[in-house]
Amino acid sequence: MSAQTISTALPADMDASEWETRVKLAACYRMVAKLGMDDLIYNHISARVPGHEDQFLINPYGLLFNEITASSLVKIDTEGRKLQETPYEVNLAAFVIHAAIHKTSHDAACVLHTHSDASVAVSGQQDGLLPLSQFAMRFYQRQAFHDYEGVAIDLDEQERLVRDLGPHKVMLMRNHGILTVGRTPGEAFMLLYYFERAAKIQLAMQAACASGVKLVIPPHEVNERAARQFWEQHGDILIAGEREWPALMRQLDREDPSYRQ
Predict the structure, then answer these.
(1) Which of 47, 87, 189, 237 is the most exposed, fewest CB within 10 Å of its CB?
(2) What residue segments make up the domains of the chain, in order of their start?
């Protein structure tokens, strides 16, 4: 079945903006799985329903990321109530984490949380991600930290999650994983992608130190300049995902457009 055929299947009881968000969110799940950054049926990515600050879409608990489709996503509100008929439940930790961010941040159109290997490894390091590569410079002094409190199933953790995230778009959840916040699923995904690349490079460099190699860390002024270039879109730099995400969706459409169902 072609991507074009699948993409026209707009449910009669749903407006086009919600369906478009569902398609992009389902694509985000598929891309995380494609790059091996998923964790079986665990982890979660959410997207706010357009025009509804208190509603968001999230994965059905029990499906692998590469099984998720636009129509299978579950719509809930920030109080945890399901807003559609569905046989699926929502992971409690997913509700606690995502509802907290969607409630308090207007720009949090998409919230992504994974246990991607390199990000978890870096989350257990005191200084988190170090400015050891151009990938890492984007996050220089722009990463938040949230201390591990156990599985995130207690509502009182929401306040601390929001406090620790602050104005940042990336937060290392200590000894646990990473959380990214985007204005689109594409931005949230690309922030994860670049952070994971940077974390892998950091771990490789740190491993090389066992043989006596010394790390080179650029000075603060250079790191800050590079970070500003990324976040303030200097030159021809765009917001993360604006160029990359359409290309990644085209790739998905060529390989397996079933996420659009």
Answers:
(1) 87
(2) 3-126+144-185+241-260
Q: Give the C-alpha separation, 186 to 24, whole Å.
A: 8
Q: Residue with structure tokens 């000075």?
A: 219
| pLDDT of res. 140 | 98
Beta strands in the chain (DSSP E): 44-48, 55-58, 74-77, 110-114, 144-146, 170-173, 177-182
pTM strictly above 0.85: yes
Name the fold adopted by 3-126+144-185+241-260: L-fuculose-1-phosphate Aldolase (3.40.225)
Give all strands of the β-sheet with 44-48 in edge-to-edge order: 74-77, 55-58, 44-48, 110-114, 177-182, 170-173, 144-146
Task: Determine the Cα–Cα distance for residues 253 and 261; give it in Å rounded to an integer.
Answer: 12
